[in-house]
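ugh ok so i messed up the first submission bc i forgot one of the chains. this is the corrected input, ALL of the components this time, i swear. 900 residues overall. if the numbers dont match what u have on ur side tell me asap before i send this to the collaborators (the ones from the other lab, u know who)
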Amino acid sequence: MKLKTLYGLPEKVLFCKKTLMSNQQPHSVQEFTHKITDHKKTTNLDKNGICDAWKYSRKKKKIEFKEREKKLLKLLDKHRGKGKFDCIVPGSGGKDSCFAAHILKSKYGMNPLLVTWTPNMYTDYGYENFKNWIKSGSFKSVTPNRNEKLMKTLTKLSIENLFHPFQTFMLGQKAFPPKIAYKYKIPLRFYGENEAEHHNSIADNSNFLRSRSYYVYKNLSELRLGGVKINEIIRDYNFKLKDFEPFLPLQSQKLEKFNLEVHYLGYYLKWVPQETFYYAVENCGFKPRPFRTEGTYSKYNSIDDKIDDLHYLTTFIKFGIGRATYDVSQELRNDHITTEEGKKLIKKYDGEFPNRYFSELMKHYNINENYFHKLCDKFRSPHLWKKIGKKWYLRHTCNKDGTDD
Amino acid sequence: MKKPVRIIPILDIKNGLLIKGINFEGLRALGNAKEFAKLYFSQGADEICYLDNVATVYGTSNLTKFINDTAKNIFIPLSIGGGIKSVQNALEFFKAGADKIIMNSAVIDNLSVLKKISKIFGSANITIIIQAIKIDKKYFISKSHGRDTVKINPVDWAKRVEDYGAGEIIITSVNNEGLKKGYDINLTKKIVEAVSLPVIAHGGAGNVKHIYDVIRYANVSGVGLASMLHYDAIKFLPEFNSKKQKIGNFDYLEKIKRTKKKKNTILEIKKYLNKKNITIRND
Amino acid sequence: MIKNTLSVGIVDLKCNNLFSIHKSCTQAGYKTSIISPKQRKFNYDLVIVPGVGAYKTGMKILKDNNYDEKIFDYSSKSNSFIYGICLGMQLLFDTSNEFGLTKGLGLIKGKIKKFSDRNKNLKTNTGWSRIKLSKQALNMNLKKFDNKYFYFVHSYYAKTSTETEVISKSKHGHILFPSIVKKNNIFGTQFHPEKSGNVGVNFLKHLKYLKG
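and heres the new structure output, hopefully the right one now
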């Protein structure tokens, strides 16, 4: 019996032998044209069942970071001291942006400007971390002047139409920094880990500049937010076009005039996620969550927005991939745990319902809780889920204990 | 005549490695745990504690050979904790060389298991570790090495475990641990005042003054030390061959510079406390 | 004449850490082995009864394996020496009231009592305490251990019928209790020498002189 697949996902569910990530994992997309009917590009497993990110991690072990650091110094020498700020570090005060900003300033003598696309709903410890991040280097920080009502509306639409609560965050996270770079005329911007480390195409990695297609667009009428065309949102919710400006990327004409360089710090410095945590605590006053994150075993990844936990629930529903799987596959790629341990952690924590902030979020976005649960069922792809009685079960898991395994 | 305050190195372990996190997060490996235990014994430690960080998460406990290896080299009490949930587990650990067993998660799940085990092995040999987490000014206890909070107040919990047969309590401040900024003296004091059992402070020691303060103001029977000792000892212990054991966070180990100069932190701590008129074992 | 290498047999009460006492005795230079329940007689220079745990359980295991008979038999022989450690020392006495009244081996006259019965705020004595030698210790050459720290972990203590058996005393709160007892070839320490660092190992070495 052939099962229907949503989102253009591959019919057969397979797991990478080394990272336990499944072939259902979608790659990053251009959020501002995202439609629910889009077919997703997904993680590729080769004929031996190994994914690209694993292969990259093996290559990474052989990299001579001393040489890479020299390249970094050359790059930094070109920009250091030029203008009021010589580079931009986008982030939110999480461990990675803490590490990046602090090391650029304290070790490499740069003067970064911190750029933050504020979260939907700050957690209090997340906000403390954000403040401490700024304090850690007496940095200046820039946050957007945006219409919060629109932010709320767009998030609600993206939940209801795309089951993607993170869209508004991802939009701004990608769109906002280049605009600030353009505004302040700062040509150099640093991101942390390279996306190819996280299963995007292996081709992305050898070129350390972020692909330009990520954040430019040519025509306003192409655009959809929350799965809905912009002019429809304006009409139905009474917003103005200029309210959308913070969410949209820089006009491509503007970009062509200004030579904006984007680099992954992870290309030049060996990025060990756990070690950025220690660094951030010791140097930037970073504090992990006081309690374990629902859906996984860790306490220090993506903890500043209450909607983070909900986001991972939706990835679990849509693609069968929960937060624990993401954390485990990162630790596996870094040789920090064994696949046996990874499987146990996934079995124990993946897909755990994020109860802590759920009611608060539903109230904030004016979504009926029961309606949300109905949405969960709507967005489950039949080839991934099976209903037995009143409960849903995955058909396939990396532990081979799915209903169809 | 006051009993000497015990200086107790506490070692978080995973697969025989000494690991050290912050707020019980992060599993940075610092080397072979038994090498550290041996060193601390020779430096004058009064007891050694091993806490298996992941036993409750993975549901396994494969410590017996490891306990054996440590116990044959040290002649001071060895306490072991990590996933102990039955009489059988306890017996295995005692047989392997443990003098005391430390329990937490299993007792939170079912207090009667504490009663049962203490009846068979004697309360004096059962230590309960309370891993307290502070959220928005309120305290909670936690299971699984700080991973799962439980809506019970640590002081209330201390009283309950005393009633059910605990012989000793270790009170850990998860919020302070790994930061080397001092113990949670208020919390520790409240636990000491709530029970008649010996209480050991744990979580946050960074210097001798922190240790003195918690002894002086919370009146503890012992002090647990981790980061303060381990990050020091690592510099002059023999180099750890991370090539043999390939899986783990060895990044820090590979970067540190080793010195030839040996430093006896435990001796320094005891000297300082002695000067401050704290009764300490100094043989 | 003091034998250079004493043979030591350790009784297995099945609820304690034998590993450490075995290691320490070996460290002290003795030929050490664990006594098997099948052995009908004890043929050692020194028999150690270590112990961790509850009195009732300890006595039950001694009886179930006929260790009590074997111990009585052994103790009547010349040149035998029995050494009880912690619970092992308490088992040498007449009775204990832990979890109801239980009879001990009765090799030394006296009772086992609970600290908290005398003072409800005094529970387990855990940690290091000094031992203070009594006059009875004078001819035993134990002076180097006077006032030294040893490791204790117990909730019960012995109350001997007479003072002659008390070789050293220690304190828990305000309660003075015997930390070393001796009646001819029956010997006991409330503390654990195998857990008392280097001082403890030296104490074990000294046993061969006590045995005579």
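quick check: Residues 7-211 of chain C form a domain with the Rossmann fold fold (CATH 3.40.50.880). that seems consistent at least. Chain C has one domain: 7-211.
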